[in-house]
Each structure stands twice: as C-alpha cells, then as structure tokens.
Amino acid sequence: MELKQMAPSIHILWLLSIQFLVLVNGGKIPAIIVFGDSSVDSGNNNYIPTVARSNFQPYGRDFNDGRPTGRFSNGKITTDFISEAFGLKPAIPAYLDPSYSISDFATGVTFASAATGYDNATSNVFSVIPLWKQLEYYKNYQKKLRAYLGDRKANGVISGALYLISVGTNDFLENYYAIPGRSSEYTIEEYESFLVGIAASFTEKLYELGARKISLGGLPPMGCMPLERTGNLMGGSECVDSFNNLAADFNGKLNALVIKQNKKFHGMQMVFSDPYGILMKIIQKPAVYGFEVTAVACCATGMFEMGYACSRRNPFTCSNADEFVFWDSFHPTQKTCSIIATYIVQNALAKFLSL
C-alpha cells in the first residue's frame, strides 16, 4: 500500500532489491535499533510537550491508510525501508508509542526525537529528547527485552542488532546558525570537533551496552533544503554552498571517527552511512530518478513550511508527492527516502547482510 504511489521503475527496483537482500540476509540481523532526530523519528515527539510534531495531516497521507504517525514525511522514512530490506518489519515503531509493547520492539524500535542534536543545547531549543535521554530509554528497553526473552536470547538480540544513528543537521541549522550561544563559544571548526566528541562518547557507550554493529549517519547537503534555498535571495534561491561544504567537511570527520573507533574497540563493526552524495545526485539530476521538483517542497508553498505550518487546508500542497524530492521545507518525501535507503543498504550496510 505504501509503495503504490512511487514511480513504477523505482517501485520495481526497490521491490527487487528487497527480495534479493532478504534472500541473502536470511534473518541474520534480529533487530533495528534507532537513535537520532526527525530523519528517523516515527512518532516519539507525539508523546512529549513540544511543538516539533507532525502527527496531523497532511503528514502521513500516503502511508498507514492516510493516518499521520509523527513521521516527518508523506509516508515511510529511510529507516522503515532499511528495516524492510533486512527482512524485518516494514515500519519501525516509536518507543514512546503506548500502542506498541516489547513484543513489537524486540525486532525494531526508534528512540529518535525530531529537532534534537548531538548537542544538548540543540534539544533544548524545542524541548525535545536529547541524545543522552535516548540512551536512557535504550537501557530501559534492554531491561524489558531481558524480561521478555530471557537473558540469553535478549543478549543475542542486543549484540546482533543493527544500530542506526542519524543526527546532526539541527545542531547547525537550528542551533549554531540560528540562535546566540554556541557561535559565541566556538568557531565552526571547534563546534564540529565538539559534536564529533559527543558522537564518539555516544558510540562508545553503545558499545559498552553490547552494541557491535553500528551505522553512524552523515549529514545531507543541507544547503539544498528548500528552507535554506528560500532564504538565499542573493543567490537566486540556489543551494547554499557554504552549508553544503560544512556538511561535507563534518561528514569527513565522522568517517574518520568510524575508522578510529573500529580500531579502538575489539569486535566493533561500525560503518559510515553517507546520504550526501546520493541526495545531491537526485537534486542535480532529478529526472533520472523520476522527480520533477527539487527547489521547493510538496507541502504548502514548499518554501519554508514544516511542522504545524504544513496545514492540511493549505491549497498549495501538491497532489502527487512522488514528483517532489522534498515533502516539507526540511524533510524528503517517502520516494526520496526509499532511494536513499536503497543506496545506504547497498553501499554501507551490505557487510551486515553477509555476516
């Protein structure tokens, strides 16, 4: 149901990819466990007091019978497609959603919170769940998992699971460049190093808690988000190169961290999952991927709206989101997420399919 509105070629390629990967994988990864921001939040923010929500229409209109879930998309997000590719559930539930239980979470769960970042100060902007709190939720999850499965089986899930981390964009766009504070404390290079240090500490703590297979996600070309292009009046509403260059530089530092951590921790198998290149290709050559619109989003005017500004009553919202790279001014459409997921699975996560 969720995939029926994709362009036929993308739909067929994705289904064939899933069938092949499931066949090869044979269920070797028992669960997908997710940390991060709105790129991987499937609804945790619905259950905390924050304005950073998307549990209303038109969000989710092409998924789950049109019922909004809290995903910042018209449908599924990247981690949902990754879970499906590994032969697990087709949609990863949010940990704080009371309609799910540990039996659902045993094969996949997300602790992510929209608008959060590596930096605690970023999570404070919209009063969302900081990364350290997501880790506390994960510790509680482990206790519930052991009570549900028993120690031996639970430990097998914990060590065999694939851990996905996707966070960082908000640290720059919603914190460092948006409000006073960090920019007066750090140069941008120092702030990058500060964030990388937090990433290192977080992955080390995950390792200490039993995680071995970890995917550290990079930043997208954030200067090409419709919100940033809308504000680039002097640049003709083109992509903001300075933000793209920053994302690429930060990604290089995260990749270096992955190499360092793998050498430091025995048995750690961490990979760097980089969405930058594939999303830039989509933006630069949209027709190749079946898209028509890259500069503005589907929702409302497509220039600056996200969250509550994406009203279901807005007359400008597009009728076919599959023609658009972006759903709102900050987040990609379901179709874009499916392409990114395919790329990430085939290029970064493939090693976990053959272990």
Q: What can you tell me about this protein's structure?
A:
Mean pLDDT is 92; it is low at 1-8. The protein is of the alpha/beta class and 355 residues long. Helix 5 (131-149) packs across helix 6. A five-stranded parallel β-sheet has the order 2-1-3-4-5, with helices on one face. It is globular, with a radius of gyration of 19 Å. The chain has a domain at 32-227 and 234-275 and 344-352. The protein contains 13 helices and five strands. Belongs to the 'GDSL' lipolytic enzyme family.
In short:
The chain has 355 residues and is an alpha/beta fold. It has 13 helices and five strands. The relative contact order is 0.15.
| Average pLDDT | 92
Largest sheet: 5 strands, parallel
Topology pattern, helix = H, strand = E: HEHHEHHHEHHHEHHEHH
Please report which band the strand proportion falls in: under 5%, 5-15%, 15-25%, 25-35%, 35-45% or over 45%: 5-15%
**Overall form:** globular
Pfam families: Lipase_GDSL
Protein name: GDSL esterase/lipase
Keywords: Signal
Family: Belongs to the 'GDSL' lipolytic enzyme family.
Task: Name the descriptors.
single chain; 355 residues; alpha/beta; 5-stranded parallel sheet; 13 helices; 43% helix; globular; disordered N terminus
